[in-house]
Protein 1
Amino acid sequence: MDRLRALAAAVLAASLIAGPAAAATETAVFAGGCFWSAEAAMEKLPGVADVVSGYSGGTSQRPTYQNHEGHLEAVKVTYDPAKVSYATVVAYFFRHIDPTDPNGQFCDQGPAYQTAVFVKDEAERRTATAAKAHVQKLLGKPVATEVRAAARFWPAEAYHQDFARKNPARYNAYKVGCGRERALKAVWAGR
């Protein structure tokens, strides 16, 4: 957690944001590969109230799991800014992906699994861009994660929501088979 705090502090300082009084909750959208894994990771951050799996970034209306071409698998994170800053949420997101992979995440490869931070305003863009630059410096490699303008977020089907919690054996088999934890440790080792 100390490394996460340090990353968030660096991101916040680099983005030069001193926000006004915070709203009751805020939302942020991230594409982090498989939305089951992104959802399970983001739910663990203190201050996060809700995480919804879905699709974003494409132009098609009402995407489904069977037909979401052009969209990225994404999560919509609702958080309490009195408990956790946007900079911390972004830093936490980066720590739970391989930001150097331009083709997807771990065993999930292809356009739908690419990573992105969707930003809704210039303040979020500065914070996300600063986080990306900090991560690139920290890893010493180019970061493939895009900072993109917010797009409509479409919730995924009900059976995808809270998948890790509702289907722990199936999710754990996927996570282990995909090598997610091993790969994350390799990417972030000692950083």
Protein 2
Amino acid sequence: MSELTIYQRITKFFRRTILRTFPSCKEIVHVISASLDRPLTLRERFLMKLHLFACKPCVRYLDQSAFVSQAIKIMDEREKLDLFAGSLSDSARSRIKSALATAS
């Protein structure tokens, strides 16, 4: 057996153990959302980082949430009101589409 195979097995074992032992994805989603609004406690940061080591879908959720949060921060107030009212201008729609296309 090669070292890479042993390394992969050990990593897989630790990831499974982490996901079975520590908070679920559902709980980590709440922590990720909270991290966008406030500083996390040491315990929350530790649990989130440990979970993110083992769970790639939650890493993607964190990246997507951070992207949306940053996008909202750079929008002007009129665009935010239009967004939440459900009526974006054509120029705003095209800017959002191009930003999403370049982020992928």
Protein 3
Amino acid sequence: MKYMARHGIAVANALVALIGGPSALTRPVPTRPVRPRVARLPDHPERGDVPGWVMITLMSAVLVAALLALAGPALEAMFNQAMDTVGK
């Protein structure tokens, strides 16, 4: 939007200059200050921290193992009952 407004003012000023009248749109076009680029150093390959996705995967695996240990016999009984009803 700023690009269009800036160039629209420039076009209007050019048209007024061609006609020869005084320009009411002659205001300085604001410019952005140029920021110097900051050199980034590459990360050290052995930083020592554990990425988040590794922790989530590990915690999910521990949770599934705990649930399976607690509910394993009940799940096995439900599965066997379902297979018996399908087989009849």
